[in-house]
């Protein structure tokens, strides 16, 4: 899901919102954040995003991201 990583790296939150399901479950280092707006707030403070070790799509959008 390089498009997700690129969107975060370039702070393109409009593109990120199109790629990620509204009820996304985003897990990094064993901590899960739920909901697209919460995940966007979390990632906007990060220097980078770890690539997914696994992910699940729903309706063509990322529903679960585990890294």
Write structural notes for this entry.
- With 67 residues, the protein is α+β, with helices and mostly antiparallel strands.
- Helix content is 36%, strand content 36%.
- The chain is built from three helices and four strands; from the N terminus they run ααββαββ.
- It has a four-stranded mixed sheet with strand order 2-1-4-3.
- β1 (20-28) and β2 (31-34) form a beta hairpin.
- The longest helix is centred in the middle third of the chain and has 9 residues, at 36-44.
- The chain starts with a helix and ends with a strand.
Could you name the ranges where pLDDT drops below 50 across 5 or more consecutive residues? none
Strand content: 35-45%
Total helices: the number is 3
What proportion of the residues is helical, as a percent range? 25-40%
Cα radius of gyration in angstroms: 10 Å
How far is the N terminus from the C terminus? 12 Å
Give the beta-strand count.
4
Q: Mean of residue pLDDT? A: 95
Give the spatial strand order of the biggest sheet. Answer: 2-1-4-3
Q: What structural class do helix, strand and pairing data support?
A: alpha+beta
Overall form: globular
Helix-strand pattern = HHEEHEE
Main beta-sheet annotation? 4 strands, mixed
């Amino acid at each position: 899901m390089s498009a997700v990583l690129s969107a975060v790296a370039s702070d393109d939150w409009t593109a990120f919102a199109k790629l990620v399901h509204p009820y996304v479950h985003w897990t990094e280092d064993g901590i899960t954040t739920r909901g697209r707006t919460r995940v966007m707030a979390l990632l906007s403070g990060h220097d980078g995003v770890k690539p997914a070790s696994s992910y699940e799509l729903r309706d063509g959008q990322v529903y679960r991201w585990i890294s």
